[in-house]
Each structure stands twice: as C-alpha cells, then as structure tokens.
C-alpha cells in the first residue's frame, strides 16, 4: 500500500468517526429539503418564480448547503486542529509530507459534499418529482466549482485561525452569510433586483445562479462561473499564502 | 532494529556533526554556538536545565528548524536541503506532539509503517513496547505512559539509522522506564545511533556513552558520564563525624581536596581517592575516630549541578 493510500485510508476512518460532521454534511441538507417539501404551498407553482415551485428552487440551494457544511462548518476545525496538536509536525518527520494529511481531509470533505448533493437531487426527484438538472455538464461544472469555492474558503479560514476553537468560531460566523448568499432564506431568484445583482458577485450567490440556470436546462452564464472560479483562486492563494505549519 | 548492520568499530565515524549552531527567537539567542559530533552506534545524551536550548538543537538536527548560523550534518545530509533523504534514516520522538484523537494504536502503527520504504514489523514493536493489549484503543483514550510508548514505537518503526528521543521516559512509571532503557540499549546494540535529550540523571548515567551538557545555548561540558563526574568538584565524597575537632591547618593540607564543609559536627570533603587516603592517615595520626564514615562516588547529579550552576560573573 502506498503511503498516500495509507494516509487516505486512515483519514477516511477518522472522517466516519465524526457523526456530528457526517450529520451536517450528508444528512442535514436532505432532511431540510424533505421538511420544505412537506409544506403544501412549497409544492404549488409560484408566479414569483416564473411558474416554478419553491421546492424546485430549493434543490440547488440545498446542494449548495452541502458544500457549505463540508467546507465551512466541518473542514476548518480539522485542519486547524492538525496543526495545533502537532499532528502535521509529527508527520513531517517521516518521508510523507504533512500536506498529504491536509489533502486527504480536503478530498474526503469534497467527496462527502458531492455524495450529499447527489442525495439531495435524488430525494428531490423521488419524493417531490423535481426535474433532474436540464444541462447535466453545466450543472456538474457549477457544482464542482461551488464545492471548490466552499473548500477553499474553509482552507483559508483554517489558515488564519490558530486553534480548533478559533476555527470553529470563525466557521460558525461565516456560515450564516454564506447560507444567505446560497439562498437558504430567500432563493436568489426571489431576491430584489439590486440585491440579486450584488449577490451574484459573491461566491455562493454566483454558484446558486449558475446551478439554477443549468437546472433549467441552459449552459450557466460564464460571468457566474467566472466569479466562482475567481473566488476559488483568490481563496486558495490566501490559504496557501497564510497557512502556518506550526 | 537494523538487521544485518556490521558494527565494526562503532566509535570510528561521526554520524551527526553540529558546528557553530545558532538560533535566536525574537532577537533572544536560544542556541548560541553549539558544536558536537556523535559517533555511529553510540547513545549520545544532551543534558541541560530548562530553556538551555536542548530541544531547539535537536529540532535543527531533525530539520524542523532552520538554523540562523552554523552547520548540521546527519549521515552527510543537510537536514533542511536533503529533508526527504533525511526522513528515511532518522526516527524522531518529539517532546510535544499528538496524534489524531480517534486513531487507534493499531491504525497509527500501520499508518506510520506505510510512511517508510523499509519499516520494521509493527507487531513485534508493539509487543516489545507492551502495546499489544491496547491495539484497538484510540489515541485519546491512552494514558500518558501508553502515548509515550506509542511515540517511541513510531520513532523506531521506519528502521532508522539514527533515532532522536526528546524526553524519552517522561510520564513513564519506574517499571516502564527500566524496560524502555533496556529497549534503547538493544536498539543501540543493533547499530542504531541514539540521540537522547533527558532530564533524568539516572537515565543519562545508565544509557549514555557520552553526554553534552548544554547551558544557555552553549556546550558547557562534553564527556563520558564517568568523565563528567571525575572532572567535577568532588569525584569522591568523604564524610564523617570526628570524635574531636580537627585543626584547620591539618585539613588545609589535604591533597586534591576541593571543597570542605562543616555542618552539625559533620565534616564533608569533596576530593579524589588520594584525598580519601590522606584523610584516613590524618585521622589515624591524631587518633581521631571517624563516626559514620562514608566514602562515596559523586553522582552525575552532583556534576550536573556544578556544571550548570549560575555563578556570579
């Protein structure tokens, strides 16, 4: 077994031993969707959404919620803790570089977020007859960019917070505006025009718009995709620039 | 641990070379010109008071810190520039580090074993460190001594040529401490060089072939444990309660006596074997009976205290 595989295997075991994180990443977005779907008016065509039902709009929102939970809530305390407790330092004395540990955790959070997104889409389809994404490759691209942005934000938070506790606090502060931008409270399409135009230039707002467009069957607007990509690049650069190994 | 290593003359080749090592934190020098060499196959001890720069010195050897000045070579490798090659031959036990809270002992051993190209069998190592009964326990549930033994196992798991142990037996009970000493001697006997940072004089005296005493970032003395004791004040300690007082003039004439103190009618003289002989003749000449006469060797403790004492000037 190669060293990288061994690290991934060990980190996978640790990942599934965190029931709290698993709940928020994998279970919560789907449960929230199910609850929304139980509200009868959410299943009626809505004139303010151009005839879509509210539940249709909430599938992409909850897909983004999975990304936010993985990237902002779960990831930063893990990465900060690995540094705080000298786990990275211990690993750096072996032939395996300590960045392997961080990479394994990022990959696992990424995989869990994607799995959760698929679960949201599947339950939306099966329970509430929400149409599958109309433009599959466009949807997938928006999804991957959204996940990348969320994980980059989490890594940047871990880079600037010295302890697990600080990372948890920072994550739980940032998560509220992130959820707002993703449209958890008001879907981006339902926001007033001015607000919508602002939100489109922020990471999760742009991702929400891109997902909506792809869900409706079109190729997502390049501006939206570009905005998410730019944020991801900026956040990754910040994380790499400011991450302290000790 | 290292199978098939021919020892030859174990004192012939330096495997660790440190010269002119300097490291300051925020303008405050912590390591200030440390130099020593460690021969292949020896147990080399680093002793010193808290804050003397011991850990910083070994961190420079491990490549965890960049020295401000000076040169470090481990088996000819630069710990920073040749980091990748160094990690393959160097096993490390850090003074302060943890593992993932929920990682089990077995998983930790398997993980670290997979990190090295040519590891030793982890089961045998777990057996020798008394961890076999705790393989399924999570790191966070281990006692301090069990964590320490796990870290010793991880330092040895890569089949290293050199192993650096920072505070080897801190947190171990006396039984486990002695078992660990035996293990370290076996490791040395198999040809591995051991660099040991310790607070325990008994440990240093028992294990180390040579010791560097570090004080305020410098090497204050470097010798075998016996040599350090011999060269410190009072290699031999003579103490007794004389049946009647001795004249100061007689005592002043004692050969090789370094210190002399009277307390509660008891006389303690630090000197050498020659001093001891002279004391006995002196007493015989004056027909003085030495009550409760004790002639003992000074310990490494005495030597350490003397070497690291903060004198004026």
From TrEMBL, chain A:
<keyword id="KW-1003">Cell membrane</keyword>
<keyword id="KW-0812">Transmembrane</keyword>
<feature type="transmembrane region" description="Helical">
    <location>
        <begin position="136"/>
        <end position="160"/>
    </location>
</feature>
<keyword id="KW-0813">Transport</keyword>
<dbReference type="InterPro" id="IPR000412">
    <property type="entry name" value="ABC_2_transport"/>
</dbReference>
<comment type="similarity">
    <text>Belongs to the ABC-2 integral membrane protein family.</text>
</comment>
<keyword id="KW-0046">Antibiotic resistance</keyword>
<dbReference type="InterPro" id="IPR013525">
    <property type="entry name" value="ABC2_TM"/>
</dbReference>
<dbReference type="GO" id="GO:0043190">
    <property type="term" value="C:ATP-binding cassette (ABC) transporter complex"/>
</dbReference>
<feature type="transmembrane region" description="Helical">
    <location>
        <begin position="21"/>
        <end position="39"/>
    </location>
</feature>
<dbReference type="GO" id="GO:0140359">
    <property type="term" value="F:ABC-type transporter activity"/>
</dbReference>
<feature type="transmembrane region" description="Helical">
    <location>
        <begin position="222"/>
        <end position="243"/>
    </location>
</feature>
<feature type="transmembrane region" description="Helical">
    <location>
        <begin position="167"/>
        <end position="186"/>
    </location>
</feature>
<dbReference type="InterPro" id="IPR047817">
    <property type="entry name" value="ABC2_TM_bact-type"/>
</dbReference>
<feature type="transmembrane region" description="Helical">
    <location>
        <begin position="99"/>
        <end position="124"/>
    </location>
</feature>
<dbReference type="GO" id="GO:0046677">
    <property type="term" value="P:response to antibiotic"/>
</dbReference>
<dbReference type="InterPro" id="IPR052902">
    <property type="entry name" value="ABC-2_transporter"/>
</dbReference>
<feature type="domain" description="ABC transmembrane type-2">
    <location>
        <begin position="20"/>
        <end position="246"/>
    </location>
</feature>
<keyword id="KW-0472">Membrane</keyword>
<dbReference type="Pfam" id="PF01061">
    <property type="entry name" value="ABC2_membrane"/>
</dbReference>
<feature type="transmembrane region" description="Helical">
    <location>
        <begin position="59"/>
        <end position="79"/>
    </location>
</feature>
<keyword id="KW-1133">Transmembrane helix</keyword>
<protein>
    <recommendedName>
        <fullName>Transport permease protein</fullName>
    </recommendedName>
</protein>
